[in-house]
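Thread title: Can someone regenerate the structure for this chain?

I was given the following input by a collaborator and told the matching C-alpha cells would be attached. They weren't. Posting the sequence so someone can regenerate them.
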Amino acid sequence: MEMLEAKEQIINTGKKLGQKNLSPATSGNISIRFGENILITASGTCLYELCKDDIVLMDMQSNLMHGTKKPSSEKHLHAKIYQMRPDINAIIHCHAPYVSTFAVCHKPLSRPIISENVFYFGEIPLADYAMPSSDKLVKNTAKFFDSHDAVLMANHGIVVSGKDLQDAFYKTETAEVYAQIYLQSLQLGNPVDLCKQDIAEIFELRKAAGFENLKH
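Best answer:
Regenerated them for you:
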C-alpha cells in the first residue's frame, strides 16, 4: 500500500468516527502499521476533519520520520501495542460517549449479555487511570493487549485494535453500541447474562474463525 492510500484510509475512518459521534472535537487518535513503521494522526487534530498533512510517519520507538507535525500524544501507547502484537495492524483511541461513561465509572464491559460482544471481545477490561500520554498510561493499558483487543482507560476513553482499520472501526462501533445497550438495560431492569454453555459455543465459533488470542 502506498502512503497516500494509507493516509486516505485513516482520513475516511476519522470521518466515520465523526459521523457516528465516536470522537468529539480534537479527542482521540488513529494509527496503522506501515511496513516497519507507524502512520499516526498528529497531536491536536480533529479526526473527522483530517487532511493528509495531519498524518505523520514514525518508527516503532515513536521517532518522527516524515511529516511536519508532532505525532499524537498517545504515540508511545500505539507503538507499544504494535510491538506486543504482530497481528495488530490498526489502532483507534476515542472518547465515545457510552464506553467513556463506563470508563469514568471504573466499570469494565465484562458482562456477557450480547453474543457479538462475547465474540469480538470476550470482555473489555479497565486499565487504571494515568495521566494521558504518560509512561504510566502505557504501562497500565498496554499490558491488557496480550489477551484482549480493546481496553477501557479509566476516566478517559477506549483503545481498540484490529487486523486493519475497518476491523478496528467495526470493533469500536460494536463496543459503543454494547455500552449503550448495557446502560439502557440497567435502567430498564437487570440484564440477563448468557449461560456458560452459550459462551463456550461462541468461543468455539471464534476459534474456528482463527482468533486465538482472546482471553475468557
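Strands lie at 29-34, 37-41, 55-58, 64-66, 90-94, 126-127, 150-153, 157-162.
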